[in-house]
Amino acid sequence: MPRKEVEKGSPERLDPDALRRRNRPTQEEYPVEDYKVSAGAVDRVLDHVINPSRDAIRGVTVIDRLQGRLFPLLDIVNTGRAYCLEIAEYRTGKDEHRRKYRRERPVIPNLVDEYLFRSAQWLKSVGGKSYDKAMDIVMAEVETQADRDTGGSDAWDVKE
């Protein structure tokens, strides 16, 4: 079939730009806001509950009421014992004490303040209240994260 010549301004002429393939126009995607259950970093709470430090373990251990009254006293006895041992080391060798403790002389511990602090820590553990509340926060945050990742549905949702 012979090609027909068409004048440049004629309506029959095809525009070469119109014949090119183009990407489909994309709709603007709006960012999905992250709704958090907790006010802070859940990773820190989870790490605190699952793998607590020596000091933080007092707040997440599940104990009964009598242990909650006994354990602060044991902490005070331990602090007093450590102070007595430090004094003995100071008296036997001041240079060795300075090298080990990085101070000139033993510091008298404030046992009343230490008792109040340890009592508050241990009483948070009575009945596992702190542990349960921290785990509730972590689990709620994990569930909302899973809802965000899957679009709010799971295998048990009924599709209508």
Descriptive overview:
This protein has helices at 16-19, 42-50, 57-60, 65-92, 94-101, 111-123, 129-150. It is mainly α and 160 residues long. Helix 2 packs across helix 7.
From the structure above, extract its key features:
55% helix, mainly alpha, 160 residues, single chain
Summarize the structure.
The protein is an all-alpha fold. The chain is built from seven helices and no strands. The protein has helices spanning 16-19, 42-50, 57-60, 65-92, 94-101, 111-123, 129-150.
In which range does the helix fraction lie? 55-70%
Strand content: under 5%
Query: What distance separates the N and C termini?
Result: 56 Å
User: What shape does the CA trace take?
Assistant: elongated
**Helical region count?**
7
**Which structural class should the secondary elements be placed in?**
mainly alpha
Unreliable residue stretches: none
The main pleated sheet reads as: none
Overall mean pLDDT stands at 78
Gyration radius over CA: 35 Å
Total DSSP E strands:
0
Helix-strand pattern, N to C?
HHHHHHH
